[in-house]
Structure formats: C-alpha cells, structure tokens
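ok so dumb question maybe but i'm new to this and my supervisor (M.) told me to 'just get the structure for Iron-sulfur cluster carrier protein' and walked off. so i did the thing. is this what she meant?? sequence i used:
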Amino acid sequence: MITTEQVLSALRNVEDPDLKKDLVTLNMIKDVKIEDNKVAFTLELTTPACPMKEMLKNACTNAVKHFVAADAEVNINITSRVTKPVDTTQLNAIKNIILVSSGKGGVGKSTVASNLAVTLAAQGAKVGLIDADIYGPSVPIMFGLVGAKPSARETEDGKTLILPIEKYGIKLLSLGFFADPDQPVPWRGPMASNAIKQLFNDADWGELDYLFVDLPPGTGDIHITITQSFPIAGAVIVTTPQQVALADTRKGLAMFQMPSINIPVLGVVENMSYFTPAELPENKYYIFGKDGGKELATKYNVPFLGEIPLVQSITAAGDNGEPIAMDETSPLAQAFKEIAGKMAQQISINNVQPANC
Ligand SMILES: Nc1ncnc2c1ncn2[C@@H]1O[C@H](COP(=O)(O)OP(=O)(O)OP(=O)(O)O)[C@@H](O)[C@H]1O
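this is what came out, is it supposed to look like this??
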C-alpha cells in the first residue's frame, strides 16, 4: 500500500533547478491522492510560463517510480500560482510590475511588451499593460483600439476608478486613450508623471500576475517617477544589434543598476537580430551585426532572453491590431514564448521568499 508520506519523501529528491530547493520544501506539491498503485497530485509552479514544466513533471514521475513503486501510475496535474516580491504592500493585488525599456526609440519596445503580454495571457496568467510612452503611445494601434476611451466607475467611498480596456484577455491602459491621436500632447515633466501615476493608482486593475509597463525610450522623468513610486519586479531591456543602439542600451541598463534605483534587470531581448525572407526561412542575414545583445548581457552579468528576427509580418500584425504572438503557427510565437518563459523564470527566482531558504 503506497502512502502519502512515501510519495512526499520521494518528491523531496526532485529539486527546482532555479529555486535550488526540493519541490516539497517549496510547497509545490498539493492534493496527493492514492488509490492502489495510482498516484495523483498537483504540481503548483510559480508561473504558467515555466520553461521547465515537462522536465519537472518527468522528474516527479521518475522519483515516484524509483523510490516508491516501479509499477506506480503517476498522474500529475500542473497549475501555477505566480509569486510576488517579498515586501510589497503597495498595489497589493498586482503581483509583478515589469518595465519594458530601451535606450533608443524605434527598436521594438512596444512590440516586445505587447507580445510578451499576449503570450503570458494565452498561457493563463492574469496580465495588464500600461503604455507609458508619452512620445508615441503605440498600444492603441497594436491592440486595434485607436479612438477607444476607457470608462470609469465610482467606488463605495466615492473614488473614481478608470476601467482598463480588455482585449485578448489583457487589461490595457495607454496615455494614448486620453489624447487625440492626431494632436501631439506636449507633456511637461510633472504633468506626465502625474498622468502616469494615475494609470497605476486610479485604475481598477483587479488582480494581476504581471503588469507590463511600456516606458518611453531613454532615461527620463517617467523612469524616475515609476521606479521611485512603485514596487518593480524587474526590467526587460530591448535593443537592436547595431552599435549605436547598443551604446544607448548600455546607459539604460546601467540606470536600473544604479544603487539609488536598484531594479533587477530580468534580461536583454535583441530585436531585429537578423532578416529572414518569408520565402527562404532557413536563411538568416545578420544585417545589423551579430550577437551584440548577447555580448551586452554577458558584460553586465544579466540574462539574455532571446532574439527576434526582422520580419515583415510583425509590422503588419502590429498595424492590424493583433500582436504576432497571437498567431500560434508563427515561428515568432515560439520565440516570444521562450522569452516570456525565461523572463517569468527570472521573476520567480527573484521572488523566492526568505522563509523558504
Ligand atoms: N522584429 C521586427 N520585425 C519587423 N518589424 C518590427 C520588428 N520589431 C518592431 N518592428 C516594427 O518597428 C516599428 C517600431 O516598433 P515599436 O513601436 O515596437 O518600437 P518602440 O521601440 O516601442 O518605438 P518607440 O520609440 O516609438 O516607443 C513598428 O512599426 C513595429 O511594427
């Protein structure tokens, strides 16, 4: 007769390679049920985007068969409960705020933010996206919401909350929703900072696992406001491979690592890494240089999250209001899945509670 204790004891031999603890100590094994030689339990991961899902599942099965009974039939149900940084009481229902940043404009920051958001939402995470790009908010275009206006609701204590607009399962707010798309808004520093703060504090976000923030390019007032006003889980840095872009990216990255800002850099994404013609998908032309993003990540000792090729369909999808990662058949959906997985994994590592150590 197999017992729950035997199963748990076997699973103590399976370690989460990132969190460096066994799954039982990490409290990731739930609902163990045993009937004859049938062993069922739930494996609760720290993100639905976990890239090690299959590996951990196999390791659990092997551990039960090896340490308990070779003929055990193991049935594992995988769920997730996204973790949050240790000491955040502010914006409590938002577990992880992720800044998407770039040193230069036009390198694909909004494209990366939108596609990562879509990817995580498709995997079952609760996702929000704030477009804080005061110079050219692109989220309304990328989500087919040009001209959309969010509504508001009154709370019981008389406060007015903006209701984010929901599209593809993502809650969205953009500065672009509050301005005429054809009229440039000459934001002055304090005005822009206040508007951004409102998008966080005066909106009805509900519960979110990940809230992405598409920052303006460079390093400026908005960056300072956000990093000093809210608990940030980390920053994703987007660059292209050219030296001119990398030079600016270095500055952006160094800003997050300054002791006064001190925000974890979750990793570098290299966009427009190479050109691939649709008719010759095997051919890769490194027109802007090779491995610049990877080398930058190595130099600053931060993870390299992945490469995204330069392909026409990305622009077309963005312009049509459907981020490319929504198309599961596109190789880009796979690229974004890998990047999202590595990013979420990095957040989970940073969020390990000291109590577990
Ligand atoms: N990998 C890619 N392949 C082809 N086109 C791309 C790629 N990445 C981004 N683009 C296109 O490049 C343009 C700029 O991208 P995006 O708006 O994401 O950049 P950004 O860094 O957010 O710019 P901004 O500085 O305006 O905020 C868009 O038209 C987008 O569709």
